[in-house]
């Protein structure tokens, strides 16, 4: 009997599809059993995988870790274990840049099993009741505030982790994908992004500065207080009838019409620890989870948000999830991919805290960007 241990993240979208596919896999491969533990969403984004590779064979991972994993030899390079045909299938059926995001120095360290980016969430029933239109640009969002009926709010998850994602999104939309060069955030891009965020904070629900996406989506799906959120990681679960008392719909986030870049790419890859002993079985299971048929089948049906384009374009997927996939696919296809070099994750965690404290204290954008770039240099 071969036992593989995996670590997922603590949300039904994160663990239920993996548990379901593990059970199905073991029905066909009776000699393989797969057990899963979970970690919080913050730990998924921030916890060093050095803390996981000796305890777990299978690790759900965020793509900015690829450089760190490569430098410290933490994960198995999947490329030698997958045929060129299989690699081509995953490449061709990638949702936007999801597949390529798990490469570093021509090494493939995970397969995308979950695709996400910052998108907009809204209560369609309330929007229709008050004859409101979705903002397509940031200027449109500024007008939208003045159209909101009394007693309703726009909310934007701006806890440190999510503030960071929105900050990078605005920088990329203003300056282009290369706004970070030589380990330096373009000063003007950063200042403009922070000024934009400070403006919006005046109009948002007062808890926005502390909330993450799940907290906002829980509130939107249980009460009638929040009518729109312009920029949060999408969760197709909330667009499924019966998941929560009230249905939440999703659309593309507002954009800068002068730049054809949408928002920051998220999602989840499934990787294998460099310490895994049952490599053959682990690789086979990772490929099984990422297989197009399983992504559009058991993975989706068990609360998953697939990383496969076939699943995103499936008529059945979109019926199940109130067109979540078709209504946000454009965002995924034009998403901004974060840097992956070693040290980025440490900078990301500390930089998020720095900007969050600066906004709370109402520091000047110029001061915050100067401190941010000093931090970047010090870490690297």
Would you kindly provide a brief summary of this structure?
The protein has 380 residues and is an alpha/beta fold. It has a 5-stranded mixed beta sheet. A 4-stranded mixed beta sheet has the order 8-11-7-12.
Q: How would you describe this structure in keywords?
A:
four-stranded mixed beta sheet, D-Maltodextrin-Binding Protein, domain 2, 45% helix, alpha/beta, five-stranded mixed beta sheet, 13 strands, 380 residues
Structure, described:
- The chain has a five-stranded mixed beta sheet.
- Helices cover 45% and strands 14% of the residues.
- The model has no long low-confidence stretch (mean pLDDT 97).
- Strand 9 and strand 10 form a beta hairpin.
- The termini are far apart.
- The protein has 380 residues and is of the alpha/beta class.
- The protein is built from 16 helices and 13 strands.
- It has two domains: 173 residues, 3-Layer(aba) Sandwich (D-Maltodextrin-Binding Protein, domain 2); 184 residues, D-Maltodextrin-Binding Protein, domain 2 (3-Layer(aba) Sandwich), CATH 3.40.190.10.
Q: For the residues shown, what is the average pLDDT?
A: 97
Strand order, biggest sheet?
A: 2-1-3-13-6
Weakly predicted, low-confidence segments: none
| CATH fold group of the largest domain | D-Maltodextrin-Binding Protein, domain 2
CATH architecture of the largest domain: 3-Layer(aba) Sandwich
Q: How many domains, in number, for the residues? A: 2
**Radius of gyration (Å):** 20 Å
Can you identify the CATH superfamily of the largest domain?
Periplasmic binding protein-like II
Question: How many distinct beta strands?
Answer: 13
Query: What is the helix tally?
Result: 16
Strand content: 5-15%
* Element order: H for helix, E for strand: EHEHEHHEEEEHHEHEEHHEEEHHHHHHH
Whole-Å distance between the termini? 44 Å
Q: Roughly how much helix do the residues carry, as a percent range?
A: 40-55%
Biggest pleated-sheet summary: 5 strands, mixed
Structural class, from secondary structure content? Answer: alpha/beta
